[in-house]
Specification:
Layout: H1 3-17, E1 22-25, H2 30-39, E2 47-51, H3 58-71, E3 74-78, H4 84-91, H5 94-97, H6 99-114, E4 120-122, E5 139-143, E6 149-153, H7 161-170, E7 220-221
Parallel strand pairs: 1-2, 1-4, 2-3, 4-6
Antiparallel strand pairs: 5-6, 5-7
Helix pairs in contact: 2-7
């Protein structure tokens, strides 16, 4: 059985166990699009959670909107309690002065609240993406701030970047145009640069000061 079939089977089994209670988080990077392509086979109207931070590249927003229309996605845009403008008025430019707090306000808190209605959270995470993800399991347990525990499914955990690109090519999934400019891990525009370390795709994030925003490290049960 090849990697794609294994991942598809993992998704199918988990979604069958949690029928009607699954969601998928999508940054519209290549891995997420592959996981989404597979998951939609089993639930076309699967809720697709996107963190609308207010700081994304214009290319990301345009691609999100294009793919949402093309695939008929059930897109759920999660936003922070404070708008970008309100946050900057109250706290200044947090992505410069305190990026951890900025990520918490604009990513971690909205996502943790957005996950509350679900029991299965599907991601496109891969071990190869970062040293912080090398021990990633295909299935984990996530504890939300409310105390609720949900299943976090990482069906592409063992995939390489070449595997992702090959699947996208075979299934004719167009990719976010920023990859063509040399970006390898794409988040908010002010905190995303081209990689400084070719062996670490996420080395261009946050000026190299950190590798994770916190949404994949908060409340994970080992």
């Amino acid at each position: 059985m090849n990697l794609a079939d294994e991942a598809r089977n993992v998704i199918a089994a988990a979604m069958a166990r949690h029928a009607g209670e699954a969601c998928l988080t999508c940054s519209f990077q290549a891995e997420d699009m592959v996981a989404l392509h597979m998951a939609r086979e089993f639930q076309p109207g699967l809720p697709v959670l996107f963190l609308e931070t207010g700081y994304h590249f214009p290319e990301t927003i345009a691609y999100r909107d294009e793919m949402a229309q093309r695939w008929g996605l059930n897109l759920v845009n999660l936003e922070a309690r404070l708008s970008r403008q309100e946050q900057e008025r109250q706290f200044g430019i947090l992505y410069q002065s305190d990026p951890n707090r900025c990520c918490r306000l604009r990513k971690v808190e909205p996502l943790m609240e957005g996950l509350e209605p679900y029991r299965l959270w599907i991601t496109g995470l891969r071990r190869e993406q970062s040293p912080t993800r090398r021990d990633l399991k295909v299935e984990e347990e996530q504890r939300l701030p409310s105390g609720k525990r949900i299943v976090k499914l990482n069906p592409l955990a063992a995939w390489s970047w070449k595997d992702v690109l090959a699947y996208a090519a075979v299934h004719e999934i167009p990719l976010l145009p920023l990859y063509e400019q040399g970006y390898t891990s794409i988040g908010c525009a002010p905190c995303t640069a081209k990689p400084s370390d070719p062996s670490n795709p996420r080395s261009g994030r946050w000026g190299g000061t950190k590798l994770e925003c916190g949404i994949h490290t908060f409340g994970r049960e080992e």
